[in-house]
Amino acid sequence: MKKAFHETKIYGQHIPIQAFKEKDFSFMAHWHLDVELIYVLSGTIQIGINSENRILSKGDFAICGSGDIHFYTSDDPESEVIIVIFRPDLIESFGSWPKFIRFVTPFMDKSQPFYENISKSTLKRIEDIFRLLITEYEQKQSSYDMFIKGLLYEFCGIALRNIPCCSTETKRDSKVFSEIKAIQLALNYLEDNYANDISLDDLAVHVYMSPFHFSRLFRNICGTSFKTYLNTTRINKAETLLSTTDLPIVDIALDCGFNSVRTFNRVFKSIKGKTPSNAR
Predict the structure, then answer these.
(1) pLDDT, tens digit, for every residue of 172-222?
(2) pLDDT (0 to 100) of residue 47
(3) Positive or negative torsion for Cα 257, 261, 263, 268
């Protein structure tokens, strides 16, 4: 699994968008201000968005709004997804998208009651839009930015027309928003302090929660325990250092927050399925 934190997207071309395919894709819980669209081309993949998670299959898709905490877990080597990430201002939505409302669910899959009301031609068009976005993004032919914007506008229109929405000004939404903000703060703290001696109690104090409430909330939103998340973050950092530097393994272990090489080797192998020496 790749590293996870508050991502600040850096786009490599003159329009703020990324579009790519991934097979057997896993990615730890993270968040960013950009909108992220996920379309399943084949197989199955588990996706968690805030406190809701689903196993999506071919033809299903999900929408992560600005600030949503999301993760991917794949145990299916045949799974393949298209991921499109873009800044809301690309479609002239400043701040977030959609504005002032939210979808009743971020998932559009066959288990949703409204799914059967969507025509086959609309579902086919959604797939075409994702495939065309990949083509335009990769080939970058003349005026590709206009085609990309047009495709995004069309997808957003289809989503708003077919997925039920509701107001964001409810007590439930206020509570959910405060919980998401707390986990966002926790992820930021872990990213900045993973090399230090961090306990669940320390992190709970940092986000003004009781350890019991924080532990349950963290697992519910991030799809894993605090300890597993911290260890995986440390191991991902160590893996990068193993492949990009000549630092001794003992130094890498200490720099990434482990108090002994023995513990580092054990945790590394449990997460990566190989020893640090083999990884190097």
Answers:
(1) 678 888 999 999 999 999 999 999 999 999 999 999 999 999 999 999 999
(2) 97
(3) positive
pLDDT tens for each residue of 149-184: 999 999 999 999 999 998 877 666 788 889 999 999
Distance CA 231, CA 258 (A): 9
- Domain 17-167: which CATH number of 2.60.120.280, 3.40.50.10470, 3.30.10.20, 3.40.50.300: 2.60.120.280
For residue 154, what is the enclosing H or E element? helix 144-162
Domain at 171-279, CATH from 3.40.30.10, 3.30.70.420, 3.10.20.30, 1.10.10.60: 1.10.10.60
Beta-carbon contacts of residue 266 (< 8 Å; ≥ 6 apart): none
DSSP 161: H
DSSP, collapsed to helix, strand or coil, labels residue 46 as strand
Tokens of 175: 């509570």
Length of the chain, in residues: 280
CB 190 within 8 A of CB 182: no
What are the structural domain ranges in the chain? Answer: 17-167, 171-279
Task: Name the pTM for this structure.
Answer: 0.86
For residues 73-98, give the mean pLDDT.
93
Could you tell me what percent of the chain has a pLDDT over 70? 94
> 168 with 102: CB under 8 angstroms?
yes
Task: Dig out the tokens for 82 from the structure.
Answer: 């298209």
Q: Name the token pair of 173.
A: 């939404």
Distance CA 216, CA 246 (A): 39
Tokens of 201: 């109690």
